[in-house]
From TrEMBL:
SUPFAM superfamilies in UniProt: beta-lactamase/transpeptidase-like
Keywords: Hydrolase
Short name of any one Pfam family annotated for the protein: Beta-lactamase2
Residue ranges of domain Beta-lactamase class A catalytic in the record: 17-238
Organism: Amycolatopsis heterodermiae
Keyword Nucleotide-binding among record annotations: no
Signal peptide: none
GO molecular function: hydrolase activity
Domain of life: Bacteria
Keyword NADP in record: no
Protein name (database record): Serine hydrolase
């Protein structure tokens, strides 16, 4: 089945861009449409952090402390019952491996939201916007819920957003960077969520990726490398299925659509 047919079969609207790295070849499904980043924003954060470390601007061993005021609930230290401290590089690992929002907040504090925006501008990703750290996104949700208005967090025109094509552009920059990019690829390879992109590929294909999830929004971007050394940058975003956060059929469709696009390029 084609990527579009796979999205249609599970009742979602899908947006996809897959490019063969080192080549202009690509497969697209509404690749220039605006999409909500959700936790995919942590990839740009981690890349800017790694670049600052490489430039000697930050010490990766510097420690941050996740206090009660920082822990807003969720995976990793965000859901801890007690205060904890860890290094900046471990904050980056937590942010990408288990999508720890508190770790991402603390890392944004050190890296700087404006510096992440500057990175995106430097890479020419002019349609990618970041409103702030995860705590800033949560603040909009709380405000909009209290006011009884549609959530800005679900509207790509009013929250942190991008396009699938720009996200494979970001991944291409990470793939091409031998120092900071290599570190980000290592963190992405540690992600524990294997139910989307990774599930679409056979075990001999190495997948390094990051998910993003909100009600009715399921995303993942990543790099897939085949045993022959060929790599692909993949960005898949879906909208729909808002009745529950758990939709394994949509998760499978994300991986299957990515695989179908890569198979098309490999053929």
């Amino acid at each position: 089945m084609s990527p579009s047919a796979l999205f249609e079969a599970v009742g979602v609207r899908g947006f996809l861009h897959v490019r063969r790295l080192g080549s202009p070849e690509c497969v697209s499904v509404d690749a220039d449409a605006p999409v909500v980043l959700a936790s995919v924003v942590k990839v740009a954060l981690a890349f800017e952090f790694a670049r600052q470390v490489e430039a000697g601007l930050l010490d990766p061993a510097d420690r941050v402390r996740a206090s009660a005021a920082d822990r807003l609930g969720g995976s990793g230290s965000a859901g801890f019952a007690d205060d904890v401290s860890y290094s900046l590089r471990d904050a980056a690992l937590l942010a990408l491996s288990v999508s720890d929002n508190t770790a991402a907040d603390l890392l944004f504090d050190r890296v700087g939201v404006e510096n992440v925006r500057s990175l995106l501008a430097e890479l020419g990703l002019t349609r990618t916007t970041i409103i702030g750290a995860p705590r800033d996104l949560l603040r909009t949700i709380m405000e909009d819920t209290a006011a009884g208005v549609p959530l800005r967090a679900l509207d790509p025109l009013r929250t942190s957003a991008s396009t699938p094509r720009e996200m494979t552009g970001l991944l291409s920059a990470i793939w091409a960077d031998d120092v900071a990019g290599a570190q980000v690829r290592e963190w992405l390879s540690a992600q524990l969520s294997w139910h989307r992109l990774t599930a679409g590929f056979p075990p001999e294909v190495a997948v390094a990726s990051k998910t993003g999830t909100m009600p009715g929004i399921r995303n993942e971007i990543g790099l897939a490398t085949y045993p022959d050394g060929t790599s692909y940058a993949i960005a898949v975003f879906t909208v729909g299925g808002a009745e529950t956060l758990r939709r394994p059929d949509i998760d499978r469709a994300i991986g299957d659509a990515a695989r179908a696009a890569v198979d098309q390029l490999r053929s």
